[in-house]
Amino acid sequence: MRSESDRHRIETFISTLGERVRGAGRIYLTGGATAVLFDWRTMTIDMDLKADPEPPGLFETIALLKDELDVNVELASPDDFIPALPGWRERSLFIARHGLVDFFHYDPYGQALSKLQRRHDRDLVDVKFMLERDLISVEKLWQMFELIEPQLLRYPAIDPASFRKAVSYFCEANR
Question: What is the bridge-based pairing of β-strands 73-75 and 47-51?
Fold first, then answer.
């Protein structure tokens, strides 16, 4: 088992990754990495990321860096679990450019809805922090949910009614 990642380890990972891959691309961090970089958590078990477009040499570089830096890396993003929100790329928040790679926090609305769909205690705390730091608003969160709701049938693991209830409850409780 590799070590948990703090801010320094995450920043070292992204800077080294950007310098070592062989071309341009975009990397979107999500989950615990976002929480650590925004300072509402001090550590994360793994760094979840999505590459789009994928820089050449990404997977080879990740394989090496996992061992060199003793970090856990998962290829995962909210759109693996819920429908991608329209405009997610444009709402993603720029972190840094290293080499030819731009690093972003994946769209906070996509992250928040994915966390509300799961409803784990830590996820609910994360969404509350996103709201407190003005990364999301309850009005827009509800609008984003309504945009993807018709597509939920394509995700058989999701119960649309309970997802709607979770988002509605969060929005009403935080108005």
Answer: parallel
For the chain, give the number of residues: 175
Residue 139 tokens read as 């009005």
Q: How far apart, in whole angstroms, are the C-alpha atoms of residue 104 and residue 168?
A: 28
Token couple for 20: 């070592």
* DSSP structural state of residue 57: T
Q: pLDDT for 23-72, tens place per residue? A: 999 999 999 999 999 999 999 999 999 999 999 999 999 999 999 999 99
pTM (predicted TM-score): 0.96
Q: Which two tokens stand for residue 113?
A: 């809805």
Q: Could you give the angle at which helices 138-148 and 160-173 cross, rounded to 10 degrees?
A: 170
The helix (H) or strand (E) run that includes residue 173 is helix 160-173
Q: For residue 142, give Cα distances in angstroms to 120, 155, 160.
A: 19, 19, 14
- Do 22 and 57 form a contact (C-beta atoms < 8 A)? yes
Given the DSSP bridges, would you call strands 93-98 and 73-75 parallel, antiparallel or unpaired?
unpaired
